[in-house]
Specification:
This protein is an alpha/beta fold. An 8-stranded mixed sheet has the order 12-11-10-13-14-15-16-17, with helices on both faces. Strands 1-2-3-4-6-9 form a 6-stranded mixed sheet, with helices on both faces. The chain starts with a strand and ends with a helix. Bound molecules: ligand L2IWW6SD.
């Protein structure tokens, strides 16, 4: 709702009240309409201030209402009434003014912001556009180029930047409502014609056609099939080329298309999934609501390779003191230089001072003596990690949390090697660790809920989407990825090319297909793991037996490509060819195509025609099927956990909502039917056999994704 009071005798004060972010629900909109009427009809009131309760102006339209039937007064006429008011309307912005919240403020005649306020139009991240007049008012207020930037990216700006751009009229360090009331009194009675943004002409840059074409090219390049960024450009173009009323009509049309597209629903699901993963739980029942994190003020990072350096930067940027430890002098010096320049670059981007003095460097592991938490990031080798953990257990103060950054190793085995296994958790960072948004927090059988809570809180502080998952080979992300990549290899054997597979996946919305991604990350990484597991066997055998491991189909194609020294971009050759080692532009490679032909001939395989639909179904449904197994095994607590991991760590397109959400939109019966079909066609691939949980969900009427947790809970309680 909204509370109406009078301030300083002559100012009507409307306070939005809808915790926690004062979202513009139907009730709030109705209350705004009612209180504005009261203020405008009260002859004693000379001007009006709109503010939000609890230091937060407004987080925008109530996203939860988007799924259902819209009730209550619509936003657009409400904001028009505010703009048309004959008394000065002043927005007092503390905390967040986002989306519809900022659009409401743009309807006011003046905007006063606190120095810590954050303003933006992030609708594009929810698959929408600022359709309460924001796409038409903002360009009129700050010009087309800046409006395009903010609206197409959803970028949130500080009060200082908002002042510089002309979004707000004044920034205060003091009480914002007091400042706004004082300001409102000072402008009472002044003419308002020049303050109604909708009446401003939109400043049109001389080269506006080129500007919009460039903006469209840019969003099409990065949107990967997402509709909202394109619609945002179209809406701003309407602001620049049409009168306000017609621009509003265009905004409405574009919004209607987005609203019913399915992409908005997917992105809004991701928004809530991101929040849901914070409410983590462990199979014991312990979770976020029962486990208190330990305070972490000082942390250590052991091992300053690529991952260790990124983790050091991420920790220092969070405000922690960090001891960065590397035993080799030369590597320590190199790492120090690299960390310094990463921090300096980051600070320059943010316009802040680099956090260089938060880090101390040491060659001595005993420097961990006074830290609260250690993140070990040495080479992925169990014996080496066990030795490091043995030393940490000797030198750390009691209660220090011991985290291992690993993408594959067994967290329980590592914990067993320490006297306090309850203090051990996995923290699977993604490279580059200071940039990538995902963190898998891996709890072992004996990890204490407090240790998990501490790692989860630290992840959140680092700005990561942190997901608590159980311990198994590959955890959640890599366990599912293995099957996706494996299907891509099988498709090559059956007649596909890397270009076909990558083309289908990139058209789906991945930034890179399997093979371009493998070239980027290095083919040798997986080869080393397969060799260690005894799967990759040197030398070329032929016939079917060469393609079987432990009774299941195996493709040695990746191993054979590696045997040629083709490790991807770094060697200038991989699944594609590159101009030179390190170059990034992938070109089709005739060598690879003839290698595939010879391979098929040697193994008696007849190439068949494969279409993009089959590529998608094989790769994506195999991945989704493993996701169901992960849920069945209790490694992830719900589909949201898996979806957040895939959207934030594996390039899954957000507008498709993550793999489990995607499966629900395809329809679980269809996913089941296609998996059954492919399993029948490939009985030597047991992973294609549909998971029991998937069958169970289909048998129980394919409930919507938000109800899967109930089915899984029931399933686990029956075991
Ligand atoms: C015809 C006109 C139609 C449309 C035009 C307008 C469209 C819009 O306005 S769309 C909404 C645009 N706003 C946003 O995208 C902001 C979304 N919110 C956030 O980014 C953040 O929540 C925040 C920065 C405002 C606050 O962050 P933080 O303090 O970290 O809190 P949480 O994110 O954990 O949020 C707390 C709690 O609030 C729920 N919530 C937040 N924003 C909204 C919202 N706009 N509508 C509904 N609910 C919202 C959030 O889900 C959390 O609750 P749960 O933990 O229960 O999920």
């Amino acid at each position: 709702m909204a509370q109406y009071t009078r301030a300083s005798g002559f100012v009507g004060l409307i306070t939005l009240q809808n915790p926690p972010v004062n979202a513009l629900s139907a009730v709030v909109r109705q209350a705004i309409v009612d209180t504005v009427k009261i203020a405008l009809s009260d002859p004693k009131v000379k001007s009006v201030v709109i503010c939000g309760q609890n230091g937060n102006f407004c987080g925008g339209a109530d996203i939860k209402e988007f799924g259902g039937e819209m009730t209550g007064p619509p936003l657009i006429p409400m904001i028009h009434a505010i703009e048309a008011a004959n008394k000065p309307m002043v927005a007092a912005i503390e905390g967040n003014a986002l989306g519809g919240g900022l659009e409401l403020a743009l309807g006011c005649h003046y905007r006063i912001a606190h120095s810590k306020a954050r303003l933006g139009l992030p609708e594009v991240t929810l698959g929408l556009l600022p359709a309460a007049g924001g796409s038409q008012r903002l360009p009129r207020l700050i010009g087309v180029p800046d409006a395009l930037d903010l609206i197409t990216t959803g970028r949130i700006v500080t009060a200082a930047e908002a002042l510089r751009l002309g979004i707000v009229d004044q920034v205060t360090e003091h009480n914002t409502v007091d400042a706004a009331v004082k300001f409102a009194l000072s402008v009472a009675g002044q003419p308002l014609d020049a303050r109604r943004i909708s009446t401003f002409p939109c400043p049109r840059p001389p080269d506006s056609d080129a500007l919009f074409e460039e903006a469209m090219r840019k969003v099409r390049g990065s949107a990967r099939g997402a509709m909202a960024p394109v619609a945002c450009v179209q809406a701003v173009r309407a602001a620049a080329t049409l009168p306000y009323e017609r621009g509003m009509e265009r905004e409405k049309e574009l919004m209607a298309t987005l609203f019913t597209s399915g992409q908005a629903r997917a992105l809004q699901y991701v928004f809530f999934a991101q929040r849901a993963v914070g409410r983590w739980s462990m199979p014991s029942g312990a979770g976020w609501d029962t486990s208190k994190p330990r305070p972490v003020n000082k942390a250590a990072v052991i091992g300053l390779g690529t991952m260790g350096r990124g983790i050091t930067v991420a920790l220092a940027q969070t405000g922690l003191s960090v001891v960065a430890i590397e035993t080799q002098e030369k590597q320590l010096m190199e790492a120090k230089q690299a960390v310094t320049s990463m921090l300096e670059r980051g600070a320059k981007r943010r316009g802040a001072a680099p956090a260089l003095d938060r880090i101390s460097y040491s060659r001595n592991i005993q420097a961990v003596a006074d830290v609260d938490l250690v993140i070990e990031a040495v080479f992925e080798d169990m014996a080496l990690k066990l030795e490091v953990f043995r030393q940490l257990s000797a030198f750390c103060k009691p209660g220090t949390l011991l985290c291992t950054n690993t993408s594959a190793l067994d967290v329980d085995e590592l914990a067993r090697g320490t006297p306090n296994p309850e203090l051990v958790v996995g923290m699977h960072f993604f490279a580059p660790a200071h940039v990538m948004k995902l963190l898998e927090v891996v709890y072992g059988k004996r990890s204490s809920p407090q240790a998990v809570a501490t790692a989860m809180q630290l992840g959140k502080k680092m700005g990561k989407a942190s997901v608590a998952v159980g311990n198994c080979r590959g955890f959640v992300g890599n366990r599912m990825l293995r099957l996706y990549v494996e299907q891509a290899f099988f498709l090559l054997e059956e007649g596909a090319t890397p270009e076909l597979v990558d083309g289908a996946l990139e058209e789906f919305g991945f930034p890179m297909g399997v093979f371009r991604m493998s070239d980027l990350s290095g083919l040798d990484v997986g080869w080393r793991t397969r060799k260690a597991a005894g799967q990759a066997q040197p030398g070329e055998a032929s016939g079917q037996s060469a393609r079987i491991r432990n009774g299941s189909r195996y493709s040695p194609i990746g191993d054979l490509v590696c045997e040629q020294g083709r490790f991807g971009q770094k060697t200038g050759r991989g699944w594609y060819q590159y101009d030179k080692p390190g170059s990034r532009v992938a070109r089709s490679d005739p060598w690879l195509h003839s290698f595939l032909e010879q391979y098929r001939a040697r193994h008696g395989l007849v190439a068949r025609s494969i279409d993009r639909q089959e590529v998608l179904e094989r790769c994506l449904y195999a991945l989704v099927n493993e996701g169901f197994r992960i849920l069945e095994d209790g490694i992830a607590a719900g589909p949201e956990d898996i979806d957040v991991i895939y959207v934030f760590g594996y390039g899954w397109p957000g507008h498709r909502g993550g793999p489990m959400f995607y499966a629900s939109t395809v329809g679980l019966p269809k996913v089941l039917e296609r998996l059954e079909h492919y399993h029948q066609a490939h009985p030597d691939v047991p992973d294609l056999q549909p998971c029991g949980l998937l069958r169970r969900l289909v048998a129980s009427g394919s409930p919507p994704v938000h109800r899967w947790r109930e089915v899984i809970k029931k399933l686990h309680s029956q075991l």
